[in-house]
Amino acid sequence: MNQRVAIVGVAQTRYQSSRDDARVFELTFEVVERLLDETGLSIWKDINAVVSSGDDYVDGKGISNDQITEVVGAQYRAEHKVAADGAFAVRYALLQVLSGHHDAVMVTAHCKESMIDQNLINNLAFDPLYQRYLGFDLVSAAALQAQRYMHKYGITPEQCAKVVVKSLKNAKNNPYAQVAQDITIEEVLRSPLLADPIRTLDCKPVSDGACALILASEQKAKRITDKPVWIKGIGSCYDAFYLGDRDLADCDSLVVAAQRAYKMAGINNPRNEIDVAEISGEFSYQELLWYEGLGLCGRGEGGKLIDQGVTKMGGELPVNPSGGLLSGCPHHVAGVARVAEVALQMRGEAGARQVPGAKTGLAHGITGPCGQLQCVIILGS
Amino acid sequence: MAGRAAIVGVGQTYHRSKRPDVNQIEMINEAVRAALEDAQLTPKEIDCVLFGNMEQAEGSYLMDCWATEGTGAYLKEGCKVHTGGTTGASVAEAAAHHAASGLFDTVLAVTYEKQDETPAGMGPLALVQDYLWAIHTGAFGWFARMGRKYMLETGCQEEHAAITRLKSDRCACKNPHAHLRLNLTMQDVLNSRMLLYPLRLLYMCPTTAGACALVFASEERAPKITKKPVWVKDWETVHYEMVGYEAYFTSRMTSMETAANRIYHRNGITNVRRDIQCAEIYEPSTWSELQFSEWFHFCEKGEAWRMAEKGVSDLEGEFPINPSGGVVCTNPIGCTAMVRVAEAALQIRGDAGEHQVTRDVKRAVATGFGGSFWTEMLLLQRSWD
Amino acid sequence: MTEKAEFMRLPATVNLEYKYSTGRYLGRFYKELRDNKRLVANKCGKCGRVLFPPRIACPDCMVRASDEWVEVGPQATLIFFYELQIPGLAERHAANYLGVLALDGTEAELSCFEHRLMVDDPGKLREGMRMEPVFNEEGRTGRIRDDILGFKPIEG
Hints:
B: Peroxisomal Thiolase, Chain A, domain 1, 9-stranded mixed beta sheet, 11 strands, globular, C: alpha+beta, 3-stranded antiparallel beta sheet, about 25% strand
């Protein structure tokens, strides 16, 4: 990177199963108001532009970002919507600073999954000519991926369930989490089956919320905070669209995205060099599969990694101290929130979920069925 | 210091009302192949693919993911950017940021709309309104009001709109990519169906199926790809509060004036028609070509219809506006603003063919219109300085 | 062999049912209109702009709206009107004429909205004329397009 760019402030709502008290863009205002309040920045003087993450289908409105103009300070100014996971909004905001056109960009994401059955929308992500009529949605596609992954590498349902147990336990330390509880592997395995082998507790819950953060150039960041969190590396990658064109047990696009991010950040051995990771697993098996894609272990060793406790709190490389998506975090918001959580870790401000001494962190976002589009961001204090 | 980016490849489909011979992916791929061929690049040489369309228009969620089949984004970086009617400009801006960031050498920007696959184009646009608020007739009501107000305030008569529409048609007839190429007469225009007074059918943009792709390159790479890079010197996005809340016509500053003022000020443009030689603007109706021209300071207030009458905005004129035929002739919505950028780039290169303007174009502006009366403006130049 | 290609189309309907929250601010508007036939707006605490429809923040100041609420209308000024000549539009909006209206007490330039016009003689429609709402009496929801059937000229 030709210059250093930092995260200088983050804000999240508490994630809840339904926020009937607020219109979807009012959630954005909640976090933007808090973000400005906490950083002491002026929306008009200090922030040059806004990148949002959202989608017309999810918001139930054409040109959905016209709702947020007035709550992000975009009156007579620039706001662009990335119609992908929030990690890509962070990525675009970073590029707006790297291009030298802006020195401070705000990233926002809002989503109320409670507005509509998400499976109806997700079905529209499949092409209308061949696949849509098969009734595909994220859950059934994930079931295919889970079957293939578990079959190819001998991953067990118990190992997947351990991800749920870990996530919901970690969430007890996260005041923003929607679901936090001590549960057992048996309880996960007894929860209702949605699409074999995916059970209710293997899925992220329906969630409403918002998250925002501010990126700034090095010069500006140092004026704003004495604890800037630097973006050290970033990479994204598309996989093939048709599920049959991919070996779903090997997440090629994540491997490529991670390699790009590691190269930029100068990371050779991610497992040793990364202190904490917040990754986007919409389903329990995905966390194990993403371990592999991220190179935290070898191919097929995701199950072993969780068995060994490497990724639990207090382990060698804690993953999702926040509880991750399984503890509740809506689409679009998920990626921004992952970055925000890692930024809090880098600042040493993650409270009860703080990983002591964390200096390098990884945030990860996904878009599309079975993680077709992947984004990896490396942060450092 | 701001990084530099250039357009090094331009491709678009032949825009038509219906393309039953191709599916969405195949149509997208036509534009992608055309842009790569223009840049003399192979898909392997592209680092990143940015994509956009009007999200709900074709009824597909996460369209960029399916589109990878046609864009060639497999194992490449990228994402989808969406801002309504301005999407084409937003994707171009995003590509410029990417190419100027120092992280990418080449970026492919792709937009499309296949309106023959949607119910009359009205379906998705109706969803733009705030569902919880009042009735909203959308574009027709807007541009009828714009026409009426413009006539009242400037003394413009309907025939001047017709003159402007004939200019668009003459240009479109010279542009093989344009959708409506009608060889119109004054009678044809004045007899076309009245939608909402004074907005006639021929003053309104059509529903089009088409795609456009642009290849952007970094400062270092661009001159190695082409002898005729078109530099994206500056850009500006101006948003405004939500449609349906606001009167659309206000005494407040418009996004067009705001964007133009900022671009001209930053780039030392003091005499617009001298310092810029051509404009490709997103004019959703003929009435907006007149009104927007004034807001973009292409002429004094109240003078745009006189400018049309005198032929100033013709292909051969002193300040050609929309030599491609513009949006009243071709409107694949999410792609329309990118076509403006593409056509402006071709004018600067001198590669527009039969619709190349007489004047030597060293610098041009391209604009996008959409959302809640939003504007995006890009300033393109033959040389950086 | 040159067989003429047959181009087929696959019909499909996308049917999505959303539940939109009105939230605190627009929700209060809905409740007042539904229960009391009152039209209300909130205000920006900084610049004093009347926010209609009511909302969480002032777009110009980007600060949270104050707790001050005001009643606006119900009388309004007709800013612009048109006959719905486009096929399908009249049916969709259940009206032959639509108007752009500004309620008394709101800033016309920022808060006008479109609604049905209920007129016996459309020839008498004039920009700037005074109008009043005709309320729907049954099955009220609080939504402005349902609970107000249309606007009619004020007699006299």
